[in-house]
Specification:
Blueprint (H helix, E strand, L loop, with lengths): L3 H8 L3 H8 L3 H9 L6 H11 L3 H4 L15 E7 L14 E8 L8 E5 L15 E6 L8 E6 L2 E10 L2 E5 L8 E3 L4 E11 L4
Parallel strand pairs: 1-3
Antiparallel strand pairs: 1-2, 3-4, 4-9, 5-6, 5-9, 6-7, 7-8
Length: about 200
């Protein structure tokens, strides 16, 4: 198994988009990601260039080496469990564990992982039990996936501001959009990455 799927999802590419870049079918990308076919050397080099990582990183030969071969600084990002009402999102009582991440993967800012509960974002491949990497920020662009606190509840939705109303869109047709026009509401951060546990 290699890191191709992880890198593709982090960059926001579909298998079809990556296939078009490499000049292969979507099915070939699926085989490369699952390890049913080995990545040809020329494709490996193109992917390393596309994702700005080393070929060794893609092939999991040495996860702590960057493109130049030097050791990266590793930082620990907290995993936030169930959020306790009234506490800041990163209060000690909310932190369930930590994940080590190369510092070069993150830009300036504060980050946390959050475990997804429920299926309201499953059509965006954000499934229950997945971990989302969130950058703490109070503003988001239209259609970005955000972590939003409404009173004592924290939700994960695609957000859009419209005439001083915050509209929160699910990615599951079984749920209706939420319209928040007042009250105690706060955008906590933007989702940058989705990690499916066990993959």
């Amino acid at each position: 198994m290699n890191r191709l799927k992880e890198l593709r999802l982090r960059a926001g590419y579909t298998q079809e988009m990556l296939g078009n870049f490499l000049g292969v079918q979507k099915a070939a990308i699926c085989k490369y990601e699952t390890g049913r076919a080995s990545l040809p050397q020329d494709m490996l080099l193109r992917l390393a260039n596309l994702f700005s990582v080393s070929t060794d990183y893609i092939l999991k030969r040495n996860p702590l080496l960057d493109f130049t071969g030097s050791t990266q600084e590793i930082i620990k990002i907290p995993i936030v469990g169930r959020v306790h009402a009234g506490l800041p999102i990163l209060a000690e009582e909310n932190i369930a564990d930590y994940i080590s991440v190369p510092q070069s993967d993150l830009k300036n800012g504060e980050y946390f992982f959050m475990e997804v509960e429920g299926d309201c974002m499953e059509d965006a491949h954000i499934v229950e039990g997945a971990l989302v990497l969130v950058r703490l920020q109070s503003h988001i662009e239209t259609s970005q996936v955000a972590v939003v606190r409404i009173n004592d509840e924290v939700v994960l939705r695609r957000a859009k501001w419209e005439q001083n109303q915050l509209i929160l869109y699910p990615a599951n047709q079984n749920y209706a959009p939420m319209i928040v026009s007042g009250g105690d509401v706060q955008i906590i951060g933007r989702v940058l990455e989705v990690r499916i546990q066990g993959l």
